[in-house]
Amino acid sequence: MRYTRRCDINSFPVGIVFLISLFLSVFSLQTAVAQVADSFPTQQNPLIVDSKNRRILIYTEVNEKGGRKASTHFGVVFKDGKLADKALLNAYVSPVDFHDALLNIGVKPGNNLTRDSGGKYVEGDSLEVMVTWPGLHEEIPLKDFIADSGGKGFDIKFGGNRTASVVESSGCITCLESCWVGITSNAAYPMNGTLKRFFNPNSQFSINGKVHLLTGGEPVILIYSKKNLN
Fold first, then answer.
1. Which candidate, 173, 184, 174, 224, places its Cα nearest to that of 53?
2. Interatomic CA distance for residues 182 and 51, integer angstroms
3. What single DSSP character describes residue 54?
4. For residue 155, what are the CA distances in angstroms to 51, 127, 129?
5. Is 69 helix (H, G, I), strand (E, B) or coil?
6. What backbone phi and psi angles, to 5 degrees, belong to 142?
7. In angstroms, rounded to a whole number, what is the distance separating the alpha carbons of residues 60 and 140?
8. Whose CB among 60, 75, 193, 228 lies 3.0–4.6 Å from 89's, allowing a Cys bridge?
9. Residue 9: helix, strand or coil by DSSP?
10. What is residue 230's predicted lDDT score, i.e. its pLDDT?
11. Mind listing the pLDDT tens digit for each residue in 70-116?
């Protein structure tokens, strides 16, 4: 009668078992880290649509010009947009692609603002915006990453504004007050005109230097998902 020899790990010397366990642990950790890194958008692939979890990840960089000073409302702007130099963060994804990606995960736009909507608030589905970057190993809320001198915080909504975005070519991805051009904007503050904003801004926004260095050019990953209001 023939027998198949069974490999019993208990028959191995303790030292070999330890080395095997150590190797498997390191391999698993490296695999997990690689998977996390691969899930991040990059300059070359700046937009990831996570359909399973219904979220959008975009690659941005701290603006070497605007990222080190306060802004009245320019939060995230496409690097090739007309207002890129004014933003805290420069995105590598276009507003149109970002807009369509939000539609693809089932987020509904408000499309309620026009150039003449001063004093009104953006509508549309509310979004949760989380922030991370390589080496952080966690996601933090937008309110911890961007300081708001006005104190009202952030209620980011999918304003829509696809046509206005194309016509104006501003590049606005996320404005920090209600906006008729930005794909997403902050309903915590009303839409303001240029002159009024100059003399009496809603707030002053800046990157929180306590959580992120401001040398400029560092990658920052923004994660947008539909907020659960239940």
1. 224
2. 23
3. T
4. 23, 7, 9
5. coil
6. -55, -35
7. 15
8. 60
9. helix
10. 53
11. 898 999 999 999 999 999 999 999 999 999 999 999 999 999 999 99
